[in-house]
Amino acid sequence: MIRVLIADQARLFRSGLAALLADEPDIVLGGEADDAGKVARVAMECAADVALVASELPGLDFFPLIEEMRVTAPECAVVVLAARSRPGDLRRAVAAGAFGFVLKDSSPVQLSDAIRRVARGERVVDPDLAYAELVTAPPPLTPRELDVLNVAAEGATVGEIAERLHLSPGTVRNYLARIVGKAGARTRVEAIAIARERGWLWHESVRRFNG
User: Fold this and answer.
1) Which domain holds residue 113?
2) Which long-range contacts (CB under 8 A, 24 or more apart) does 119-127 make?
3) How many CB atoms are located within 10 Å of the residue 34 CB?
4) Residues 129, 153: one domain?
5) What is the strand order of the sheet 77-82 is part of?
6) pLDDT tens digits, one per residue of 74-121
7) What's the pTM?
8) Last residue of a domain, one of 133, 157, 173
9) Angle at Cα 180 formed by Cα 176 and Cα 186, nearest 5°?
């Protein structure tokens, strides 16, 4: 029996999804969560095999949540339920450790199939989302600019960026100026926000787990 955790802020959506899954002979509802901060705890308490996590779940950005689940509830595979797909979301979710990424309006058959496949250790991605990710324009930044941007996105100062990447502070400032310009931003903070929105920082999760 596959134990499923449903994490969404809307009680009506959770109830509707639970009702649909109740018709599946090999899937059982293990628990529910309406806030990102509760997901890992509930997953451990109910020994969930699969967690269906809404991308707009309040309390914590869903990428750090996926990473937290890998540490605190490693036996529970996360499937992101996206109301919509922003550029880079799929790539960042996979990099963070998600096993699935599907749309909320997927049919009951598609969703139950995704749950079973993920429970078997397979990866499941909505084909339309995968295609949209493939045709998304790559970042206009060089690999070194992306390195600087990722470290800056962690809140590092110019000096800390320089030390970590073995650059001079002056070189880091030049990189940051170019990044701001290429992003069409006015400040470094705005450039980082744009980069997150466009998915340019997806590989920071890969570096954190593999570095």
Assistant:
1) 2-133
2) 119/2, 119/49, 119/50, 119/77, 121/77, 123/94, 123/99, 124/79, 124/99, 124/100, 125/90, 125/94, 125/100, 125/101, 126/101, 126/102
3) 19
4) no
5) 27-33, 2-7, 50-54, 77-82, 100-103, 124-125
6) 999 999 998 876 667 787 788 788 999 998 888 889 999 999 999 999
7) 0.69
8) 133
9) 125
